[in-house]
Specification:
Structural class: mainly beta
GO molecular function: protocatechuate 3,4-dioxygenase activity
EC number: 1.13.11.3
Shape: globular
CATH superfamily: Aromatic compound dioxygenase
CATH class: Mainly Beta
Strand content: 25-35%
Enzyme class: oxidoreductase
Number of helices: 2
Number of strands: 9
Keywords: Dioxygenase, Oxidoreductase
CATH architecture: Sandwich
Mean pLDDT: 87
Low-confidence stretches: none
Helix content: under 10%
Number of domains: 1
Pfam family, one: Dioxygenase_C
Order of helices and strands: EEEEEEHHEEE
Length: about 190
């Protein structure tokens, strides 16, 4: 560059982030059905994933992993393939345009010394890896007192891990990625 050539400002480039890219190959039609809705022990878990400003995230992906109603963890292969009758222990649901997700599953039994819970993973734009949390059930309050993980969470934050019972066999569990009421996330 010579002295006679004026400097031009560089064009502004957008910041780089991860995703959203979950709409291809990761969600699948039967993903939210850990068990079929018609089973008498089926429960519905639904909620909304919110960003730090309290806005719904329309392009997140929510996964759940859990034990069955007897506290047994499935160990057979093929969790993605649903036969319409069994329990896989795994579910995956993309959020809808309003940030909502849902699962048809069973209420898990306790595993070891833990209160019954469902492991929840959230994949969202801007994250290099998913964030991990747990969903506990409000009617298991007595078991919450002796749960090792809940015991390590400050009392004022434990409520972010406990679902709200909205009807018989239906629970709501909203995930707040940051900000007021941020969900407690776990490090592994």
């Amino acid at each position: 560059m010579t002295e006679s050539t004026p400097l031009r400002p560089s064009p502004v480039t957008p910041s780089q982030t991860v995703g959203p890219f979950f709409g291809y190959a990761l969600p699948y039609e039967e993903g939210p059905r850990v068990v079929p809705d018609w089973r008498p022990d089926a429960i519905r878990v639904r909620g909304t994933v919110y960003d730090g400003a309290g806005e719904p995230i329309p392009d997140a992906l929510v996964e759940i992993w859990q034990a069955d109603e007897n506290g047994e963890i499935p160990s057979r292969p093929g969790g993605r393939v649903r036969d319409g009758h069994g329990f896989s222990g795994f579910g995956r649901c993309a959020t809808d345009p309003a940030g909502g997700y849902w699962f048809s599953t069973v209420k898990p039994g306790a595993v070891g010394g833990d209160a019954p819970y469902i492991a929840v993973l959230v994949f969202a734009r801007g994250l290099l890896k998913p964030v991990f949390t747990r969903l506990y059930f409000p009617e298991d309050e007595a078991a919450h007192a002796s749960d090792p993980l809940l015991g390590d969470v400050p009392a004022e934050r434990r409520g972010t891990l406990i679902a709200e019972r909205t009807a018989e066999r239906e629970y709501r569990f909203d995930v707040r990625m940051q900000g007021d009421g941020e969900t407690v996330f776990l490090a592994f």
